[in-house]
Amino acid sequence: MSDTPVIDLQAIEVLRSLNPDDNGEFLKEIVGIFLEDTPQRIAELDQSLASSDLARFTRAAHSIKGSSANMGAVLLRSAAEKLEHHSKANGLADCEVLVKAVKSEFERAAKEIRVIADF
Question: Cβ atoms within 10 A of the Cβ of 113, count?
Fold first, then answer.
């Protein structure tokens, strides 16, 4: 097991610092967007994999990578980055295991971010 945290608390503090006097409302709003948008991007991974749409697949992986980096979801960002690089280098071949890792890391990140943000 890695010592890498699921969520980088420094990233959360940066988000909190953007609107420090709102009792965490801005953070909750950002968390809500992340929790709503990421499953949609994951669904795009599944759909584009099924339809062999490489460009859409790679964009969805890139989007997950970016949003998870913003949220400090370190392991999810890493999984999405691996998926993005793999799709660029190898197309859609053998992506299923990497998609499964993205899904798993999202579940872990979502669970932890809800606790951290009191969502």
Answer: 23
| Residue 106, domain extent | 9-116
Query: φ, ψ for residue 7 (rounded to 5)?
Result: -125, 130
Domain assignment present for 2:
no
In the three-class reduction of DSSP (H, G, I as helix; E, B as strand; rest coil), residue 115 is classed as helix
Residue 14: inside a domain: yes
CATH number at residue 55: 1.20.120.160
Long-range contact set of residues 102-105: C-beta below 8 Å, sequence gap at least 24? 102/42, 102/45, 102/61, 102/64, 102/76, 103/42, 104/79, 105/6, 105/73, 105/75, 105/76, 105/78, 105/79
Statement: residue 1 has pLDDT above 60: no
For residue 10, CA distances in Å to 14, 38, 51, 106, 116 come to 6, 21, 39, 19, 12
Whole-model pTM: value is 0.93
